[in-house]
Amino acid sequence: MQDIHPLILCGGIGTRLWPLSRTEHPKQFQRIDGNSETTFFHATVERYRAPGFADPLVSVSSTHVATVLQQLDEIRCPARIIAEPISRNTGPAVLAAALMLAKTDPASLICVIPSDHIVKGDLAADIVSARSAAEAGHIVLFGVPPEYPETGYGYIVDGGEIEALPCARKVSRFVEKPPLDVAMALIEAGTAFWASGISLFRADVLIEEFRRLDEHTFDAVTLAVARGLETDHALYLSAEALQPAANLPTESIVFERSPATVISPLTVAWSDVGAWNALHHIAEKDEEGNVLSGDVISIDTRNSYVRSTHKLIAVVGLDDVVIVDTDDALLVTTRDQAQQVKQIVKKLETIKRRELSQHMRNQMAWGEVKRIQSGPGYELRSMTLRPGMMLPVAQDQTLHRMMTVTKGAGLLKTETLTRPLRIGETFEVAANEGAVIYCSPESEMQIVEVVCDAAFKSVATALDALQLVNS
């Protein structure tokens, strides 16, 4: 019996989980809570490291390939990566994976899995129990029995039993994010499920449905795979070929239009963590109904979600609130208004705030980078390289870099020289030059970097900042 291939989708941004989730560092790569190192992506991968499952495929933006590689290495999990040069929603990503697997086995079983959900229970067992329906040529959509009339989820309405197929049921219709009165009616009828975004099917079935229902996208993705660049760690799809593909989810292109679609109920607790209130809903609570993450002291506070990243948060006399603290932003709202965080994100986009896209402190494949100070034409930041790691400094026509080693030792290599690096040594990487910094395998290395616009005239300001750090 062949193994099921988990296809983990990492393309979302998760704007309603700002300030944790940012466009350059989305929620799937962030820690689930402040009390552990496990990220949403870690948890998703680990969920399918079980009998009956092959090593995962991971579909991700090209800009986040290094992050995926780092997090896979942290849990020692091999995987094949499909790198998307442009965003085209889930439809083209799922088709690309099916085309890849069909090269060696057209009947490969694929389970599509979002990377940013929270699940409690044996989801892998639920998926394995529905494999007979997928092997028979059905597209299995996994539904969650609804706990309340959620207006932010899609619903799948049960269409009745399927003879000789006890693991799945017919689909009557789809209802996308209904208003409250409709959601309440669906719950009362007892025949609707939340759409989990998880599906199971044969590669050849999905490919044929795409060819039949959206030949234009099928041709574009087929060409993007054929013209893609394959490296040791990923297949980079061709951007030019992928451009004409529909920017739509698999649900609207295929699942909602295919007679092969069936539904299989899940037996687990599930949340897509679309907003902070969802994290409160599914997490374990204290005796006051609070979910406290990180360094938090709570007095006379109930039914609240409070998350600290680096500093102590003290909360007194508040009920039903959400407080989320990061290095450079603090969110305070009520649980019933948590969905409105997306309005903050829109405002940040309008006024072009850095906090929309970047954290002050970011984990990289080679270590950590922290922004310390910035001003017109320059940015001061601290970088910590893990022992034995390599930091590539890419050529850039607009940026001039000045660096000082403040801890550890290593090696600097440019096109013209190779030199050792020790504490207190300062070096430059000029605009249009590249370099590689190697950290000694014995201990970590810390570097303070000032990045200046090449055309910035008042470089003295940046140099003053660097001198201040050195002193």
Detailed description of the structure:
With 471 residues, the chain is α/β, with parallel strands linked by helices. It folds into three domains: 268 residues, Spore Coat Polysaccharide Biosynthesis Protein SpsA, Chain A; 66 residues, no CATH class; 105 residues, Jelly Rolls, CATH 2.60.120.10. It is built from 13 helices and 29 strands. Helix 3 crosses helix 7, helix 3 packs across helix 8 and helix 7 crosses helix 8. The longest helix has 13 residues. It is globular and about 75 Å long. About 1% of the residues have low confidence.
Shape: globular
Strand content: 25-35%
- Classify the secondary structure makeup into a structural class: alpha/beta
Main beta sheet: strand number and arrangement? 6 strands, antiparallel
Query: What top-tier CATH class of the largest domain fits best?
Result: Alpha Beta
Q: Which sequence of strands runs across the widest sheet?
A: 20-21-22-29-24-27
Total strands: 29
Please name the CATH architecture of the largest domain: Alpha-Beta Complex
Overall mean confidence score, pLDDT: 89
The stretches of 5 or more residues where confidence is low (pLDDT under 50) are: 457-463
At the fold tier of CATH, the topology name of the largest domain is Spore Coat Polysaccharide Biosynthesis Protein SpsA, Chain A
CATH superfamily of the largest domain: Spore Coat Polysaccharide Biosynthesis Protein SpsA, Chain A
Helix content: 10-25%
**What would you call the quaternary organization?**
single chain
- Write down the Rg: 25 Å
Helical segment count = 13
